[in-house]
Amino acid sequence: MITKWIIGSLILAYGGLLTVTGIADEYGRTYNEVDGGNSDGYNPLFDPGNYHAPTHFPLLFPPNAYLALAEQAAVDGKVDDARRHTFDAMRHNPANGEAALMLLDLYARPALYRVVLDEAEYDAEDTSTTEPDQATDEIDTAENFPAISPADKAVADTVADISYRLRPTYLTTLATVADYWSASKEDAKSFRARSALLVNNPESAEVTFPLFHTALDDPRFTEFFAQHLADPPVWWPAFFNYLLANEPDADKIHRYYMARANSAHPPIPAERDSYVNHLIKSKYWSKAYQVWADNLGIPADSETQLYDGGFEDTKNINQAFTWKISQPAPTVKVQQTSGMGVTGKLGLHITFKKGTKSVVFQHVSQTRLLPAGDYTLQGRYRLAQLRTSKGLRWRMHCADQPDLPLLGESAAFKGNGVWEKFTANLRVPTGCQAQLLRLETDSPYAHHNVFEGEIWFDDLSIVKGSTPP
Fold it and tell me: What superkingdom heads the lineage (predicted)?
């Protein structure tokens, strides 16, 4: 008897559960969301231009249907009703992230939903006759989008804070929270959310960097932003590159760079090199040299001297004003290495292996900033069976005016021999701000540029005045 009673109770309970879930499913189909995936249902709430606040709700009214009501109300400009329905959805399900984001959107950018109305696909006969341009104008009016009350602002602030803490890596959450704090003029919180968005989604820089760039014209934001330069976020170098490409005020860029340079965490090499190269591209040669020299602790007046003429520094090669060394071909090896007869520990050693094809060698160079005048390039070299028809020469070009004639060149290096000294007269004309000293093939013709053997260089320097012939 007891068994039958238990079985009967379970059947009744199961039947009740089916009834309740059936009713809930029916309401779910009847009141599915505007953009929901239930294609079988019909949503009587979404009727653009004809929103009416419901007088009552069914017993098992599905919580997500409140979002459909909220969107319907927002589309028709009834923002207060939209917010109320969103609160209803959150009361039924406090963990409803979609409702939280909709609430923040309704405070930060309610016009978003009116844009949806303009783009929605529905029969014009069933909608308002308002022209699109008029609708757009209405989006910006205070009548359609009332100001937020202090009480509602406190609730929305709490929702924004909780959403950020619970979903700190969700891109939609971060973007919505950032927009909300921006609309609320909470720069610190907006910056925090946008920074997290950039960390989790670097592609958001396409939208976020222009916002930051524009905000830099606001002294209040600039002061706040400067506080983060001492220990910048990971995306700062990318934003600095954005500024280099888009900010026309060179002084503003320099202020931000110097703020970084004087901080406890100075610019990383990529950041510094980007700025130096930007200055060079803009032909601010002296400022570029100063930034580069300050980083290495080199006196600013060293710009007239060759940097590391003994080829001892292997750490700072391939920077704007150091030796730029590269490899022209697999059969050619250019390196700073030790060897017999070098001064100090290292010298420049170039090896052309047997079978090396014709090569246009221009792979060792350095940029200097010499005032107009006469100079002498001097140094030492050693040949080790360097077989070629024309040889290699040190030549100086005007870096900022490459069409000018050569500023000077050494004799051609080829053959075999012990360590010897060499000199070359250089003349820098007025107006040539920067010069390029480069080791290069003597001839422009391919058949002259077949090499085999070795050559060494050491103790290079540039001194004021010319050497008598």
Answer: Bacteria
